[in-house]
Design a protein that fits this description.
The protein has a domain at 3-15 and 46-99: Vaccinia Virus protein VP39 (Rossmann fold, 3-Layer(aba) Sandwich). Helices cover 42% and strands 13% of the residues. The protein contains five helices and three strands. The chain has helices at residues 3-11, 18-24, 34-42, 59-67, 80-90, and strands at residues 49-53, 72-76, 96-99. The protein has a three-stranded parallel sheet with strand order 1-2-3. The longest helix is centred in the C-terminal third of the chain and has 11 residues, at 80-90. The protein is globular.
Length: 107
């Protein structure tokens, strides 16, 4: 089982696909974006596990921690320069883990 599949299985994580982001007209620069309100309705667990794939500098990961304070956020960023900035964000949140990895379906 791949690392990601194993992590999802072990954490019972909910997955919200990119098609939902398109339907929500998601904007990355607004923490008051209605997309987060909709996601809060869709994620109906008290301690959600969230994957921020392509986290870049961690802006969205930080917003997720604000909207879902009891969440565990796994932020994936493969590029070293962006990852260093992501690490700074993750250091402020104990349940935000920065991973210097790319996500792929292996194909």
């Amino acid at each position: 089982m791949s690392f990601l599949k194993n992590l999802i299985f072990k954490t019972s994580a909910s997955v919200i696909g990119s098609e939902i982001y398109r339907k929500l007209n998601f904007a990355h620069d607004q923490s008051h974006d209605p997309a987060f309100e909709v996601q809060r309705e869709l994620i109906n667990t008290p301690q959600p596990v969230i994957f921020d794939v392509g986290a870049r500098y961690g802006q969205i990961s930080e917003i997720y921690k604000q909207w879902f304070p009891d969440s565990k956020v796994f932020s994936f960023e493969p590029f070293p320069k962006s990852y260093r900035e992501l690490e700074k964000v993750s250091s402020r949140f104990p349940e935000l883990r920065a991973l210097n990895l790319a996500i792929s379906d292996g194909q």
